[in-house]
Amino acid sequence: MSEHQISLTVDGERETLTVEGRTLLVHALREDLGVTAPKVGCETSKCGACTVELDGDVVKACTVLAVQADGKTVRTAASDTEDDVRSVVTQQFHEQHGLQCGYCTPGMVLTAADLLRENPDPTPSEIRASLKGNICRCTGYTNIVRAVESAASELEGTAAVAGDGGKTAAVDGSAPEGDD
């Protein structure tokens, strides 16, 4: 297999590394650079555990070859870069108990922050639809959806949305559909 030297910025640090052409970005981040926020879950883009921002776009790092990230900027949920939206989402995940084992949390946080940048006042259905590509086996989504609602309220300065915005988890672990 041919090797390629790539340079990219990861969480504010310029990195240069040599990778095989078939190396996935998630593996380069974790194995070559020791960046552990993106997790290796399904490697089929179904679970969202490997979610990162690549030049500002939220992507699943198991769907991107490391060579495709050459010259680009990668931000993970662990990035020290100031991001008010992500900071509020992270805070609300803690306050609303939107995490348990933490495996899915980095991907959930980045996906939720991206949603709130695009749609600052999402409905519970819009939140669930946005999170469909992220699987959580621990929480049942209720507290995750509540955390995103609370983050939206805090960011907008509006009253928190009450109720069971998350409903219950579907049997297959996908974010449940609401009846609203």
TrEMBL record:
Statement: the UniProt record of this protein carries the keyword Secreted: no
Recorded hits in InterPro entries, A to Z, give: 2Fe-2S-bd, 2Fe-2S-bd_dom_sf, 2Fe-2S_ferredoxin-like_sf, 2Fe-2S_ferredoxin-type, Beta-grasp_dom_sf, Diverse_Oxidoreductases
Q: Give the domain of life.
A: Archaea
Listed PROSITE patterns: 2FE2S_FER_2
- Any one Pfam family here would be Fer2_2
Q: Name one GO molecular function term.
A: oxidoreductase activity
Q: Coiled coil located at which positions? A: none
The alphabetized UniProt keywords are: 2Fe-2S, Iron, Iron-sulfur, Metal-binding, Oxidoreductase
The 2Fe-2S ferredoxin-type domain is annotated at: 4-80
Name the UniProt record assigns to this protein:
2Fe-2S iron-sulfur cluster binding domain-containing protein
